[in-house]
Amino acid sequence: MKNAMQKQGLGLGELDQAAISEGISKAGVIVILALATLIGTWGIACLIGGMSAMGGILELGRSWFAAVTGM
Q1: For the CA atoms of 53, 57, 58, 61, what is the dihedral angle to 10 degrees?
Q2: Residue 15 structural domain
Q3: pLDDT, tens digit, for every residue of 27-38?
Q4: How far apart, in whole angstroms, are the C-alpha atoms of residue 52 and residue 11?
Q5: I need a labelling partner for 57 at 20 to 30 A (CA). Which of 16, 19, 35, 46 fits?
Q6: Where do runs of H (alpha helix) occur along 1-71?
């Protein structure tokens, strides 16, 4: 492995930096996906809570429309 890196002109520090940055990128994507999942789950829970508080999806829709349009 060391001979292959020397032929390519890469030092150990450069190879380690590439591996570290790849690992950080993967961890960042995982964190973003986890947060998006949590936010989506929270949104669905709020929608279900709103439907149960309003008495159904039609009442929720009517109330939302009235709030948005001001009617």
Answers
A1: 80
A2: 2-69
A3: 999 999 999 999
A4: 62
A5: 35
A6: 2-8, 12-54, 57-69
